[in-house]
Amino acid sequence: MSAPESKSAGITYASAGVDVEAGDRAVELMKDAVKATHNASVLGGVGGFAGLFDASRLLTYKKPLLATSTDGVGTKVAIAQAMDIHHTIGHDLVGMVVDDIVVVGAEPLFMTDYIACGKVVPERIADIVRGIAEACSIAGTALVGGETAEHPGLLGEHEYDVAGAATGVVEADSVLGPERVREGDVVIAMASSGIHSNGYSLVRRVINHAGWALDREVSELGKTLGEELLVPTKVYAADCLDLVNALNKDGVAPLHGFSHVTGGGLAANLARVLPQGLMATVDRSTWELPAIFRLVSQLGGVPQADLERTLNLGVGMIAIVEASAADAAIARLGERGVASWVMGSIAKTTDDAAAAGTDFVQGAKGVDGGAVLMQGSYAG
């Protein structure tokens, strides 16, 4: 316990719990990683009041549309804090933000981040930002600014939360979305790297209920439970943009849309990128649930319907393409190291589909769009 503050001494910012010098040290530790994400379009250095990005390239667009997204990583930060491992959480943040932008076919140009913490520990903050910078480099996105805020009394000494926002651009006549999807299209799944950054409130509740420690070695995972839970979110932005450029060219555009599988699960997120009147039928037998999802299900006795509307279950991103382009799409993704497969197809919504109960989703997240019918059982 610290000694009581002397009434005769003036109250300083430091005595109130904010260490400005620690914040400065954190910036020194992170600035090289941030600079590594900069390209010729980024003006100025680290530490300015605002990040500057040269938008001259937008003059080459006929009708540029700006796309923006903001997000955090949810309660996954609690796992990082419990394990005192902080260099991966930045990948989760970037993935959650830029992979929403790429869904409409936009290239994420630049990103900013925000870290709120109970106490600035320079090395910890630098680790977080290094992870953000690494993932920005993977996505081809410049990290142009950010903020670290010390909130003593609001957050515990070892607690923090992260958030970020990004801006991208897409040509108006190249926007991907529901209006492009057609009957006969196929649905291609892209494998996730793990749980990604959604559903950790459920996962943490399950492992706490089971009494499992994060350092427990789990044979079916091939690592400790905590190591598995901290596997960073796969960042798909560059892979998706490459797929757009490979398929949609020379006046032909067989790639019609993407869906980022985040909160709400596969069916809900796929439904929101389909037009009214069309339904995606997804065949569960086309993939095997990765071990971590089977483990969560077994440990918690979690109903399948709840798993499916909470976790990605092995599919992190979805592409919707014309059937004739499916093989080319899968081959192109494979060249970039992205495992993918056809998991369903698009047809007209049938009157009796709703009778499937929880296997049927009509519209989602405020979008009065298409529908998704989940069929069959998972392989394995």
Automatic annotation (TrEMBL):
<keyword id="KW-0436">Ligase</keyword>
<feature type="domain" description="PurM-like C-terminal">
    <location>
        <begin position="182"/>
        <end position="350"/>
    </location>
</feature>
<protein>
    <recommendedName>
        <fullName>Phosphoribosylformylglycinamidine cyclo-ligase</fullName>
        <ecNumber>6.3.3.1</ecNumber>
    </recommendedName>
</protein>
<dbReference type="InterPro" id="IPR036921">
    <property type="entry name" value="PurM-like_N_sf"/>
</dbReference>
<dbReference type="GO" id="GO:0006189">
    <property type="term" value="P:'de novo' IMP biosynthetic process"/>
</dbReference>
<feature type="domain" description="PurM-like N-terminal">
    <location>
        <begin position="65"/>
        <end position="170"/>
    </location>
</feature>
<dbReference type="GO" id="GO:0046084">
    <property type="term" value="P:adenine biosynthetic process"/>
</dbReference>
<comment type="similarity">
    <text>Belongs to the AIR synthase family.</text>
</comment>
<dbReference type="InterPro" id="IPR004733">
    <property type="entry name" value="PurM_cligase"/>
</dbReference>
<dbReference type="GO" id="GO:0005524">
    <property type="term" value="F:ATP binding"/>
</dbReference>
<dbReference type="Pfam" id="PF02769">
    <property type="entry name" value="AIRS_C"/>
</dbReference>
<dbReference type="InterPro" id="IPR010918">
    <property type="entry name" value="PurM-like_C_dom"/>
</dbReference>
<keyword id="KW-0067">ATP-binding</keyword>
<dbReference type="GO" id="GO:0004641">
    <property type="term" value="F:phosphoribosylformylglycinamidine cyclo-ligase activity"/>
</dbReference>
<dbReference type="GO" id="GO:0005829">
    <property type="term" value="C:cytosol"/>
</dbReference>
<keyword id="KW-0658">Purine biosynthesis</keyword>
<dbReference type="GO" id="GO:0004637">
    <property type="term" value="F:phosphoribosylamine-glycine ligase activity"/>
</dbReference>
<keyword id="KW-0547">Nucleotide-binding</keyword>
<keyword id="KW-0963">Cytoplasm</keyword>
<comment type="pathway">
    <text>Purine metabolism; IMP biosynthesis via de novo pathway; 5-amino-1-(5-phospho-D-ribosyl)imidazole from N(2)-formyl-N(1)-(5-phospho-D-ribosyl)glycinamide: step 2/2.</text>
</comment>
<dbReference type="InterPro" id="IPR016188">
    <property type="entry name" value="PurM-like_N"/>
</dbReference>
<dbReference type="Pfam" id="PF00586">
    <property type="entry name" value="AIRS"/>
</dbReference>
<dbReference type="InterPro" id="IPR036676">
    <property type="entry name" value="PurM-like_C_sf"/>
</dbReference>
